[in-house]
Amino acid sequence: MVLFKRKPVQYLPRPVWVIPETNEVFTNYEPYLQRMDFYKQKRFICEITGHSGLTFFEALRSEMEESREVNSAFPDALKEPILRRIQFSTVSRVDNLVDEIYEVSNRRVADDVHLDLPSFRPADNWQEFKQDFYPGEPVLILLEDNTRLHGMIRDKANFAEQRYPDGTLKTPAYATYLVKVLDRPNEEALLDQDHITRDRKTFTKQMLRAFIKNNVTRESWNGAPWLVKPSIAEEYKIPTDVPKNLHQGTKK
């Protein structure tokens, strides 16, 4: 070991160049410059907003800002049930996924409401999902005179179907909701699903699309399932083990 004044010589560390936004590390300056030139091209797109003609860094900042806004604005009560039903869905295009969820989530009970949200089943079909609302969700209350009041779901009670001894249906399954009437302080109402709907102003297709793209991913191969991002799936305790028949190369 070479000494200087009886102490080992301390070598200078090898110089490196770092791109903080991506955590990429370069030991040679030329590849670093090439990579920076690539990122500075105005050819990148913000996935959430769809804005194009951005540098990589501009698109990244846009996605981070929009991501925070989307998750903040999206109704908390709908996050888990929607993500849970998207998990493992094989609808190919995000726009089709948005249409499926949005239309069935906002459909009125005037049609005798049976709603189908995308969900995985072994046969890879849609799982029937009746119109449902969740504690903490903002809703519109529909009065008999067509007046609409703003409300908040406070609690929900499910009632199983009842059948006669011969097996014929006596009463279908249903739910009742304790709703706080926001337009009338200190007033609550016990309502069924016929008198509740979602406010399209607080649950739009654009908002839903941004929420999906912000929290769900899908690989590019044909038939690939949608997967909730691992950290989000862990937060809501959503299963992450992809069924074997949805692995690449196993779908017919």
Major beta sheet, strand line-up:
12-11-8-7-13
Low-confidence stretches: 107-130
Secondary structure class reads: alpha+beta
Give the distance, in angstroms, between the N- and C-terminal Cα atoms.
65 Å
Number of strands: 15
The biggest beta sheet, please?
5 strands, antiparallel
> Quaternary state, please?
single chain
Helix tally?
A: 6
Overall pLDDT metric:
83
Give the helix level as a range of percent.
25-40%
Rg, Å, rounded: 26 Å
Would you kindly provide a written description of the structure presented here, covering whatever features stand out?
With 252 residues, the protein is an alpha+beta fold. The chain has helices spanning 29-39, 56-73, 76-86, 94-106, 205-215, 230-236; strands spanning 3-4, 7-8, 17-19, 24-26, 116-117, 127-128, 138-142, 148-159, 162-163, 169-171, 174-181, 187-192, 196-197, 216-217, 227-228. Strands 12-11-8-7-13 form a five-stranded antiparallel sheet, with no helix packed on it. A two-stranded antiparallel sheet has the order 1-2. The chain has a two-stranded antiparallel sheet with strand order 3-4. Helix 4 crosses helix 5. The longest helix has 18 residues, at 56-73. It is elongated.
Task: Give descriptors for this structure.
252 residues, 5-stranded antiparallel beta sheet, 15 strands, 28% helix, elongated
